[in-house]
Each structure stands twice: as structure tokens, then as C-alpha cells.
């Protein structure tokens, strides 16, 4: 397999993973009474409505060139917790909707793999397109979705897992909490990019290997990570 094929398949896996992740956030907020995401066109499957230049293009490219897990992020879906009957609970539901969407997509890829498993060996030998689909696209699609899920579950703002912290923040300090979220992103970038580059230490990569890699191998009929 040449590098171009690998890049194309990576993009075909990564783009829908982040699009449906962000759509799930917006859909959850809309179902809870907040029309913000819908008004701004963020319930669309059009990738152009969700792409963030750094998170969707540059960061995954860096991860790919470094040989690490391919993950990144799209433009955060805007929502207004004041529309929710219970802002704290709504914040958690909206926050976890994205990782849940990634889990469902990983499970879907595994289900397809299991359904094709009885005839996969003969089909792989006779069809190169099927080989790429079964042996590369399906496991990569599952892995990327699981990487996104577990990465976003890290309880560090602005990642989705930080929404759980909001349950324990007193209401009177919520405004300050949301302000702190804005400044946590540079710290996260240091952990993601500078630590592996400068000190050859990649705690996030190790965490994703243990979590996403283990779940992927449990889901699929063959070892993929």
C-alpha cells in the first residue's frame, strides 16, 4: 500500500468521525431546547461547516507524520446552556453526545466486519478494493472514532470530558468556570505537541493505545491495534 492510499483512507475515516461528533453535540443541544447550533448550520453533514484549519487539517497531519494516533477536532459547536431546564445536566448531555456518536460509529464498523468475516478471506484474495475496505478502512474508521471518543473524554477543558466537572462547580462560579475553559486549550496543545517533540514523552498517545486500542480489539473479529 502506498502512502497516498493511506492518506486518502485516513481522510475518509477522519472527516465523518469529526462531522458526526460535532453534529451530535448540536443535535443534543437542539433537543434540549437550544436552537443556536441549528441556526448556525451546525446540524449539517457538510464537512465545510465544521472544519477548523488547525484541528481538522494541521493537527491530524502532524499526528500522521509523527506516526501517532490520527485525531483532531472540528470547530466547537456553539450552544447556550441558558436554554436548558437544568444547565448543568444539559451541559453534560451535550458534552457526552459527541463521544457517544464516535462509539456508535466504531461499533457500526465492527458489526460490518463481523457480518463480512465468514467470507472475508476469499473476498480479500480476489478483490483489492475489498481488501482496502475490510482490512484497512473498517479498522481505521473504528480506531479513529475510538481515539476521538477517549481523547474527548479527558476531563480537561475544553474537551468534552470537562463537562462532567461542571456538575460539581457551584452555580455562582459557573461564569468563571467557562472563562477558564478558554485558557486551558494552550496547555492541552503543549501536552499534545511539545511534550512528544521535545522530551519524547507522549502520555496522550499511551493513554489512547491502552483505551482505544483495547476496545477496538474487543470489538473486531481480528486484532487491529
TrEMBL record:
Bilayer topology annotation: Multi-pass membrane protein
One of the record's GO cellular component terms: plasma membrane
Transmembrane region(s): 6-30, 51-72, 92-117, 129-148, 183-199
Name of one Pfam family that matches: Peptidase_M50
Alphabetically ordered keywords of this record: Cell membrane, Hydrolase, Membrane, Metal-binding, Metalloprotease, Protease, Transmembrane, Transmembrane helix, Zinc
CDD domains: S2P-M50_like_1
Molecular function GO terms recorded: metal ion binding; metallopeptidase activity
Full protein name: Site-2 protease family protein
